[in-house]
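Form 12-C: Joint structure prediction
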Amino acid sequence: MHSSSQKLTTFQNLVSCVHNIQLTTFDAQTFEPLTDATDGAPILYFLLSLDNGASPWWTPEGTNFDRLQTDGHFRPIVCTNSLGMVWISEIEPFQGKPYRIHVFGPVFVSDVSMQSVLTNLQGRNLSAGIRERVVAYINDIPVVSTIRFYEYGLMLHWCLTDEKISISDLMYVEAGNQRNIASEGPSLNSHGTYFVEQKMLQAVREGNLQYEKQLNHLASTGYTGQIIAKDHLRHVKNYVIIHTALCCRAAVEGGLDIEVAYTLSDQYLESIEAADGISSLHEISKAMVRDYVERVHRLHTDSCISPKIRTACELIDLDPQRHTIHSLAQRYGCSDYYFSRIFKKETGYTVQAYILKKKMEQAKQLLYTEDCSIAEISEILGIESPSYFSSCFRKATGVTPLQYRNHRQKDQ
Amino acid sequence: MLLNPNANYFDFLEQISNCNGTVLLQTPQGDILNLRSELCRFIFACAATNKTLLSGAEIQCDFQEDYLLLTPFLLDDRQSGRRETCAQ
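Section 2 - Result
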């Protein structure tokens, strides 16, 4: 078994392959830096107290370790200051008591924060010596995406405690008397991020399956607002909601049917609101972009099916209970007979068979993930008779709904 | 009053948070930092890592009582050879 010091060294070496993020260790009692004396440690010490008034450490009340524990365990603490710098503090316990404090950072989670500090410096008539020192320090602070930085925090926590936690376990310290640095100088220039965001939306519009490269770039430089909010989960939800709205509109511009795009958006918004952790929001966001990009991509590449029928299929896919031959035919201004004929010709399925197929797929999902009875599932799917539902399910899958549920549970 | 080059700058910044008025630091090179501002405190922190940058820096407070709070970090009249100047 490796000691925490060995693990920390490995951790630092691994992180240094990608980012030059400082890891400074302080004594938990005296707050003296224990790592090799570098210029960074004392500056960091100042930074830690910037927003906290008279407090020497990061809590507004001083160093009250008890309030930094959850269920008797210290959690990584995400801290920020009004200059937009973020760091993670990790308390290393020894025999249940705080022994050392490791401070990982600072980093900027947005190039905008970094630029705003540099812009504010330009507005001051600093002498060459001081300016050089400050600019050198700022330029050494890496810009890291929020999620990646949090992930580093999880790894650091494991190195010190052998405990695996998730992003939702991180604690956030709200800076006291937080003030926006923009009030001290010219307004923030976020155009750099705007262009990156536009690139990503363009990928959605074009159905460009290589979009992840743009998305990664956005994650590493994009401005997602202040990291510290009273409710951090709410803040991230708001961000993902805006992201969904933008992608939805970009997909419409790329040719996706408005109703399909908006129905999809509604479904994602529902999932976003229901999400209880930041990592799940991250997953939803990724899935949402992928979904829109792939749909637009199919529109541009699948030439066997006309746009009208493809849209009809997508509407059924999104909500099989809601659509009938008549509602779809009406939507496209043709007779039920004509619509059914074209649908069958292009997809190989009758409209009813296609709807039933989608309902059965949904039934599988419900049987697997929900605890509802067969009658309830039948009702959710808009099939009046549970026995008819069971019979259809058996035809489609070869087993009864209950057998399917039991098999899946056993497999699990 | 001049900032004592041997003062503990961590404690100094902490004490400034207790001051009621503006606290300005002026270096001989002409830098003027309002130590109640977050950005200026950060600049001070960077500069403090090289004591020569803050050598001869002068502190000016709005209120007389703030000088009293900061006394442990300042050179007195005899040490500095200067007379204290109150901005108010």
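Section 3 - Comments
Residues 248 and 265 of chain A are 6 Å apart (CA to CA). Chain A is about 55% helix and 10% strand.
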